Amino acid sequence: MTLVRAAGDRSILLHVLSPRRFLCRLICRCVFALLPGSAAWADAQPSPAAEDALPDAPAVQSDVTLRSIPINILRDQKTIWTSPFHIRAADLKIVLPLLAATGVAIATDEHTLRDVVSHDPGFNNANTNASNVMIGGFIAAPVVLYGVGHFRGNEHARETGLLGAEALLDGVVVEQGMKLIFWRERPYQDQGHGHFFQSSAGWDSSFPSSHSVLAWSAAAVIAGEYPNPWAQALVYAGATGVSLTRLLGQQHFPSDLLVGSACGWLVGHYVYKHRHRYRAVLSLSPSGP
User: Fold this and answer.
1) What is the pTM (predicted TM-score) of this model?
2) Residue spans per domain, the chain
3) Do the beta carbons of residue 246 and residue 211 sit within 8 Å?
4) Taking burial as the number of CB atoms within 10 A of a residue's CB, which of 47, 107, 254, 260 is the most buried?
């Protein structure tokens, strides 16, 4: 297989002997692209640079307002898609298991959809409808939280709503970008082979799952803002339900859901870690915990 890549005024021919090897490398790069530097992880050590010296201090973070969302999204996207240049060895403890699981999932996708998941139309439609209802809840949650915060003077809810919206919009850009890169067939196309790089798959291709990216990005923000174990269990169970029902509805392959869920969580976690101010303000207050 031969690919052409533009480089300045020249065209470089890339000869790939193995399509599977090329696919693994491309997935690896896209997953790396969703690791916005070492700061994507909660336990990462802060950089000695001045702007990163106190990552939770309100003074060094962007404002959390409606007006700030567009510029914050642009900054997020720049960080997300340039992050392969900032990968550290510590990130590999997350990336390598994810890549291994993705490889196994891709290898067994066709078997799972053909022999494990039911093909009963009524069952499939019920799960598809359930996934659409649940993702509607995750999309509506930031709007509701912002409304509660705005009209009742609840800064915590207002911030959660704004960051949830930012994570959702970031997730849309990421998943659409990946869909246009991978062009994977849906399970109901071409007898369920799930081939990649098929232009016939169109802009709404299968890899990754849009529902999973959006559900997990919103869930990561809400779970970060409300670290109560019950609240976190509830939002993550809901996000898992969204992904699972997409599989049971024969709308996506398992690898679509795995990568979509991981990407969504990484995006939401990044937005929360780099934008939230509510808990930081409390921790710096004399009356705070």
Assistant:
1) 0.77
2) 2-284
3) yes
4) 260
Which two tokens mark 60?
A: 């060094």
Based on the number of CB atoms within 10 Å of its own CB, is 120 exposed (0-12), middle (13-18) or buried (19 or more)?
A: exposed
- Taken as a whole, the chain contains a residue count of 289
The distance in angstroms from the start CA to the end CA of the chain is 60
Instruction: Point out which residues pair with 7 in neighbouring strands.
Output: 10
Could you tell me which of 163, 114, 141 has the C-alpha nearest to residue 235?
141
Whole-number Å distance between alpha carbons of 167 and 135: 14
Residue 228's alpha-carbon distances to 66, 118, 165, 225, 231, in angstroms, are: 26, 36, 21, 9, 5
Residues in Cβ contact with 2 at an 8 Å cutoff, skipping those fewer than 6 apart: 13, 14, 15, 16
Six-digit token string for 17: 């002997």
The neighbouring-strand residues paired with 15 are 2
Tens of pLDDT, residue by residue, the chain (289 residues): 444 433 343 333 333 445 445 455 555 555 544 554 434 433 333 333 333 333 333 333 456 788 889 999 999 999 988 877 777 888 888 888 999 999 999 999 999 999 999 999 999 999 999 999 999 999 999 999 999 999 998 999 999 999 999 999 999 999 999 999 999 999 998 888 999 999 888 888 999 999 999 999 999 999 999 999 999 999 999 999 999 999 999 999 999 999 999 999 999 999 999 988 876 444 444 444 4
CB 58 within 8 A of CB 285: no
d(CA 275, CA 143): 18
Nearest by Cα to 119 from 29, 222, 188: 188
Q: Are 156 and 282 in contact (CB under 8 A)?
A: no
